[in-house]
Amino acid sequence: MILISAEEIAKHNTYQDCWIIIYDKVYNLSKFLPEHPGGVGVILEQAGKDATLAFSTIHSQEMIHRYLPSDACLGFVDPATVAETSKVEERRREAIKNRPSLNEILHLYDFEAVASRILTTETWSFYNCAAGDEISYRDNHYAFLRIWLRPRIMRDVTHIDMSTKILGYYSSFPLYISATALGKLGHPLGEVVLTRAAHSHGIIQMIPNFASCSLDEMTIARKEGQIQFFQLYINKNRDISRKVIQKAQEKGYKALVVTVDVPSVGNREKDVRMKYTGAPPGIQNEKDLNRDQGVLTPEDAILAAEYGCDGIVLSNHGGRQLDFAPSAIEVLPNVIEGLKKSGLLGKIEVYIDGGIRRGSDIFKAIALGAKAVGIGRPLLYAMSSYGQAGVERALQILKDEFETVMRLSGTNMIADICPNMIDSKSLSNHSLTPKDYLSSNVYDRLVPLRSKL
Ligand code: HEM
Ligand SMILES: Cc1cc2nc3c(=O)[nH]c(=O)nc-3n(C[C@H](O)[C@H](O)[C@H](O)COP(=O)(O)O)c2cc1C
C-alpha cells in the first residue's frame, strides 16, 4: 500500500497538476479535470485537499470507478500526516455514510436531525440559531399547535387542486422558498440546489441578497419560464442598492422583496458563541443593513400598502431578530382585520413565514387569510444532508401532507380554505400549547457555559 503525506498532496493544487483525496485514497485528476461534467472550478477548489465531503454530498462512490481509470489512484493518504481539522471532516464523513436513506425520511424534523450531525458546528449554529432565549423561534412552531381544524365531510374530494398564484405567478401549491443567506456553507452548489428543486416542484424561490452563489450562477441554473423573486437588504448607500436592483431586474427576477426587519442583527447567542471558535466567512456582512422595521402589526401592513407594495410578508425572520416578537401566524388575523377595516384587503397580498413544518401549517395559514407561506431552515437542512434530492423530497412531503389535509377537510381548491375551516380561538393563549415531541427532540438547547466546568 503506497502512503502519501498530506503535505505532498497539498503541493499538487493546480489545473495542470491536480490531486485530491476522496475516502482516504489519493487521485490524480489532472487528465480528468478538463472533462469534469460539473466544471473545473468545483474540483480546483478542492485541489491538494481532502474532497470527500464535497464529493460525497453530490456523487456516489461508484462514480469514481465508472469515470476514472484505475491508474488515477495513486495510493492512500498517510493518516499520521492528516491535520487536526480533518478530524472534523472525518466526523462529517461518517455522518454522511451513516445517514438514513431518503425514503426513510418521513417528515421535516428528520432532515433537521440528520443535518445536525452532518453540518460543521459553525454552519449548524448559523442555520439553527435564533435570537435571545429563542422563545419567538419556538413559538413560531408552537403557535400552529394552538390552531385546530374543523374538517367538513360528505363532500366530493376526488380531485384536489392545490395550485395558486403568488403576485400573479403560478405556484403548484401555496409555498415558496424563503430567502436564506449563505447556502454554500451547507452544500458546495449552494442556492442553485434550491433553484433546481423549486423548478422540479413548480414553486417560486426567493433569492437571498447574501447568496453564496453569484447572480449569474443562479440565473444560469434557472430553467425556461421558472419564476424567482429577489430579496434585498437596503444598503445605507442607496446607490449600491439601486445597482443591485437594476442587476436583479436585468437578470429577470420578477419581484423585489425588501427585508425591513434588520436595522441591526439580532442577538443570536448560539451563533455568537461559535464565532469565538471561528466564524464561517461572510456572516458579518449581515450587519450592513437598513433602518426600517418589520411587518408584524396591522399599522405597518397598512403603511406598506400605502407605500404601494403589492404584497407583504409577515415574519419575525425565523425568530432570529427580536426575541418575543410574535409569530407571523399569530398576528395574521389582526393584520387581515386591520387591512379590511382600512379598505385595503384585496389590494395587497399577505404572506407569512416562520415555523412552517407540516402541510397542516400551510392549511391553517391559508384559512387565516395568507396567500401562501415561505419556508427557510427545513430546506437548508434537506439540502445540506441530501442535496437536490433531499430538497425535492422535503417539498414532496409537504405537498402530500397539504393535499391530505385539504382532502380530509373537504376542500377541493385553495379558495375553499376559509376561516371557518379552523378553530383559532386559542391562538393567542400561549399557555395552551400542546407538547410536540418531534420538534422538542430536534431542538438544540442553548446551554450555559456551566456545562464545561
Ligand atoms: C473523482 C472525481 C469525480 C468524478 C468522476 C466526477 C464525475 C462527475 C460527473 C459524471 C458529473 C455529471 C453529473 C452526474 O452524472 O452526476 C459530475 C458533476 C458534478 N460534479 Fe463531479 N466528479 C468528480 C469529482 C467532483 C468533486 C471533487 C466535486 C466537488 C465539489 C464535484 C462536483 C460536481 C458538481 C458540482 C457537479 C455538477 C452537478 C450538477 O450540476 O448537478 N465532482 N461529476
Ligand atoms: C440561516 C438563515 C439565513 C437567513 N437569511 C436571510 C436573509 O439573508 N434575508 C432575509 O430576508 N431573511 C433571511 N432569513 C429569514 C428567512 O427568510 C425566513 O424568514 C425564515 O427562515 C423563516 O423561518 P423558518 O426557518 O422557521 O422557516 C434567514 C433565515 C435563516 C434560518
Strand order of the main beta sheet, please? Answer: 1-4-3-2
- By CATH, the topology of the largest domain is TIM Barrel
Estimate the strand proportion: 5-15%
The radius of gyration computed from the alpha-carbon positions, rounded to a whole number of angstroms, is 23 Å
Name of the CATH class of the largest domain:
Alpha Beta
| Helix count, DSSP H or I runs of 4 or more residues | 17
What small molecules accompany the polymer chains? protoporphyrin IX containing FE, flavin mononucleotide
CATH architecture of the largest domain: Alpha-Beta Barrel
Calculate the terminal CA-CA distance, rounded to whole Å: 45 Å
Give the helix/strand class. alpha/beta
Number of domains: 2
**Major sheet description:** 4 strands, mixed
The helicity comes to 25-40%
Overall shape: globular
CATH superfamily of the largest domain: Aldolase class I
InterPro entries: Aldolase_TIM, Cyt_B5-like_heme/steroid-bd, Cyt_B5-like_heme/steroid_sf, Cyt_B5_heme-BS, FMN-dep_DH, FMN_HAD, FMN_hydac_DH_AS
Keywords: Heme, Iron, Metal-binding, Oxidoreductase
GO molecular function, one term: metal ion binding
Family: Belongs to the cytochrome b5 family.
